[in-house]
Write a structure and sequence with these properties.
The chain is an alpha+beta fold. The strands form four sheets. Strands 2-3-1-4 form a four-stranded mixed beta sheet. Strand 8 and strand 9 form a beta hairpin. The longest helix has 30 residues.
Amino acid sequence: MNILLNILAFFIAIFMLVLVHEFGHFWVARRLGVVVERFSIGFGKPLIKWRAKSGVEYVLAPILLGGYVKLDDSSYTAASVWRRMAIMLAGVCGNLIFAVFLFWLMFSIGFKSPKAIIGKIVPHSIAAEAGLKVGAEINTIDSSRVDDWQEASMAIVMRMGDRGQMAINQQKLDLSSWKVSKLNPDPLQGLGLVPYYPNV
C-alpha cells in the first residue's frame, strides 16, 4: 500500500512540476502576442483533447514525464529576441515561483512534528545507564524546553563531541563514551534512544 501511495505521490508531483513549467511558457507567449497552437501535458497518444474558442488545443497524454507548448512558427520567429528569450525562460521561472510559493504556504500553515516520546532504549547504552524509560516524553534538554523530536534532535546535535554530561528531563547522561557511527551518524542512536512514532 505504501509503495502505491509513493508512486501516486511521485506522479502527482511530476504532473504539477510539468504543468507549472509549461504554463509558464504558455502564459508568457500569449501575453507577448505569440500564437499558441497546442498546450500539452504528457507524451504519447492523447487521453483527453479539446480545442478552446481561442484556438488553442489542450492535450492530456499518459506519459507524465514532460510536456510541451507548440507555438506558431511565423509569429514566434517574427517576435523580437527579448520576447523569444522571455518565453524560453518562463518555464524555469514558473517552477522557481511555484517552489517559493509552496515553501511560503508550508511555513504559513505550519506542520506538526511528533512529540519527543521514547520508543525504545538500547540495553547498556548511555540512555539506559541514566535511567530513562520507554514511553517517557522528553520535555527538557539541558534545562531548555523541547516540544517535539525535531527540537530534541537539534538540541542533542548541538552537544555532539562533548564529553561532559547532558541533562534529559533532569536525568544526567554521561557523554564520555558517546560515539556516533561514521556510516550512520545518528546522535540519538549513539545515546541508545529510539524515537516513538505513531502509526499513520
